[in-house]
Amino acid sequence: MKKEYTNGDVTVVWKPGLCFHAKECIHGLPDVFKPKEKPWIQVDNATSDALIETIKKCPSGALTYYKNSEGPPKEKTMNSENIKAEVIENGPLIVQGTVEVTHTDGSTEVKKRSAAFCRCGKTGNNPFCDGSHNG
Fold first, then answer.
1. Which CATH number goes with the domain that contains 14?
2. Mapping DSSP to helix (H, G, I), strand (E, B) and coil, where does residue 123 land?
3. What mean pLDDT is reported for the chain?
4. 44 FRET partner, CA 20 to 30 A, in 28, 67, 102, 113?
5. In this predicted model, what pLDDT tens digit does every residue of 45-77 receive, in sequence order?
6. In terms of residue numbers, what domain contains 63?
7. d(CA 118, CA 115)
8. CA atoms of 15 and 124, how far apart (whole Å)
9. Main-chain dihedrals φ then ψ at residue 50, nearest 5 degrees
């Protein structure tokens, strides 16, 4: 699932399934990202440049953007040569690229683009981070 919010110049794309509530968005633009309101993203409360700079700080990839003049980005295909892993201080391990995750029960799933793996063990969505360590 994804939701899109536009100011006419830039479209903000939110994929809630990727979000682990790092709150970079809320801390960066509290007048735009208001989780207690509907819609929670109010793109008209900041400039397009401010939106872009804040979205670039989203560690999970749950928030992305595209310039309307360029249209939505084409889905990138990734191979094993361009997988990236980043350890977030006091947070999850972020893996970007297409990865196949094998669970303890032997089932597998493919995560495309970005996955946040829990490192604290408090998640209710093992092995993925759900922000439980923030509570």
1. 3.30.70.20
2. coil
3. 85
4. 113
5. 999 999 999 999 888 888 999 999 999 887 655
6. 3-67
7. 10
8. 19
9. -65, -40
